[in-house]
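Subject: Protein record for review, amino acid sequence with backbone structure tokens
Concerning: The relation between a protein's sequence and the shape of its backbone.
How to read it: Take the token row as a discrete description of the fold.
Enclosed: The protein record, placed directly beneath this head.
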Amino acid sequence: MGRSLPIPVLGKEAPLPVGPIRLAALAQSPVILFRGIREADGSYDIAFEDFADRIELTGTAREKEATLKGWMIRYADWISDLCRKYPLSWHNYYDFWEERS
């Protein structure tokens, strides 16, 4: 397993890093997601959301990768939903959809 996995984001696969999910599994602690959406008046709507009570990567290498990928898909779905709901409130400095040869 490499440092990233191809995960669908906004309908197209992007190489998302596996490190955050692996670190969460090693820490054996709850995972809480954070978002800050800028409002029209310049203020921010800040929210924290429970993502996982605990992430466990156990079993064979194939089972671990499948579990890891499942968590990453769940995270990518969360990000995609936010991007669709607030299309003008995000920017990414890395081209996830860069065509690779």
DSSP finds two helices and four strands in the chain. The beta strands are 4-9, 12-17, 31-38, 44-52. The mean pLDDT is 89. The helical segments are 19-27, 61-85.
